[in-house]
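REVIEWER CHECKLIST
Item 1: Sequence provided? yes
Item 2: Single chain? yes
Item 3: Sequence as submitted:
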Amino acid sequence: MPRLREKFEELRGKGEGALIGYLTLGDPDIGTSEDLVRCLTENVDIMELGIPFSDPIADGPTIQAAIDRALRSGINTDDAFALVERLRASGVKTPFIFMTYYNIVLQYGEERFTTRCREVGVDGLLISDMPVEEASRVLECCERDGIDYIFLIAPPTTEERLGKILPRARGFLYLVSLLGVTGAREKLQEATIAKTRWALERVDLPLAVGFGISKREHVEAIMRAGAHGVVVGSAFVGLVGELKGAAKGDLLKLSKELKEGTRAERLVLAK
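Item 4: Structure as written out by the authors:
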């Protein structure tokens, strides 16, 4: 069974949602980044690992700054694969998703990229700037290598467009909670809850909601709406930007608090 599907089924059996964490690989440097990912896997259920790209159009200031630090540290795509390989060799079992931009995959070679994902233990791939109409070649490579391709949907996504995405989506569907770029927000928009419920009526895959989620109250609200998981990125990345290698304690504290929000007994999880 694919590791992502296994994880969602395991959590469903326990009455929990998935906490999906994000960190930018190479931030603030490769060695520290590896330690911080390993630290965060103690509490998160799934890890998104960002491969830095010089023009991150979907990311807000916090993650853009992390990408800049990572690129200045010298990380490249081969380093990202090697980092995951070391984490797997050290016993980390948490499902990993690479999140990046198409230029990274294209320059590496689509087939070569997904083959290396399979070899080192990457379970999923999310390409932020690739629409479904242009994804055929990457999807073929992912299917061949057993890599779950994660699609994004957003507030303007129509039923017609969702119908194009669903037959090709694997692992889970990622609902972008708001218009704009990544970044922690103080309040969760009512439109996010409405779109979550709209999507749940139409999808069979697990649904995870991301962008702007940074507090336990956000997590609980999304879980009550029926989502199967939440994605938290900027809140974690901001701690790394502020504290660098000393962020471990704060990462553990925040991830534990957010994880508790996915398992509160009063939450009603869909499906």
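Item 5: Key structural point noted by reviewer: The domain at 3-263 is CATH 3.20.20.70 (TIM Barrel).
Item 6: Recommendation: ____
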